[in-house]
Structure prediction request, 243 residues.
Amino acid sequence: MQKTTELYAGKAKSVYNTDHPDYLIMSFRNDTSAFDGEKIEQLERKGEVNNKFNHFIMQKLEAAGIPTQVESLLSDTESVVKRLEMIPVECVVRNISAGSLCRRLGVEEGLDLQPPTFELFLKNDALHDPMLNESLAITFGWATQPQLTKMRELTLTVNKVLSQLFDDAGMLLVDYKLEFGLFKGEIMLGDEFSPDGCRLWDKESREKLDKDRFRQGLGGVVEAYLDVASRLGIDMGPVERSS
Ligand code: UDP
Prediction:
C-alpha cells in the first residue's frame, strides 16, 4: 500500500490517500490537544502508542461483531484503514460522571450512571462541538434515522465489550466518544479508540489514566497510556513494514 497525497490533517492524526481507492493510511502524530486546540503539545511516543492501542481495541471490537474501518498496522505510527464517508455526529457514552456532563448539569464527578447515558454532538470545532439530538441531526441532514439507530446500538455494544475488557484489566471505562462513517453504504466505526478519546480510571485508586492527565496538567500522560496498554497486554514492539 503506497501513500500518495495528504487527504486531511486533524489535531492528532493525518490521513493520506493511497494507490487503492478504498483504502487510506491513518498516521498518528505526537501532537496532543485540548480545549478545542487551545492547548497543544508534542508528547514523545504518543502517536505510536495510540496507533497500536487503537489497532488492538478495534481488533477486539471486530471479534465482537462490530464493523470497524481498521485493516492492518502498517508501521509504528500508521495503520491502513477503509475510506469512510464520515458522519459528522459524535456518540458519547458515560458510565461514570466526569467532564462536560459535570460542567453542564452541575453534578459531581464519579457518580455511577445507571443506565449509562448516550449523547450526540455535532463534530464542529468552530462551534465547540455543540450537543445535538436525533431530531436536529435528521432535519439538518447530518445523519438519517436508521443510521442514528444503528450508531446508538453499536455504541452501546462497544460499551459492553470494552467495559468488560477494561474491568478485567483493573480499570473503569468512565466515558468515551465514537465516530462512525459509511463504507459502501454500511455503517462502520471510524476515527480511533485510544486514551485520547476516552476516560479510564484505575479501579481501586480511581487514578486518571487518560487524556485528562494532559487537560488537567497532571503529567505522566504517555506513561499512563503505556500503563493501560501493558495491563491490556498490547504489544508495543516495532511493527515490520508490510509493503
Ligand atoms: N471526547 C473526545 N473528543 C471530543 C469531545 C469528547 O474524544 O471532541 C471524549 C472525551 O475524551 C471523553 C468523552 O468524549 O472521554 C466525553 O467528553 P466530555 O463531553 O466530557 O467533554 P470534555 O470534558 O472532554 O470536554
About this structure: Residues 92, 98-101, 129, 175-177, 197-199, 211 surround uridine-5'-diphosphate (CB under 6 Å).
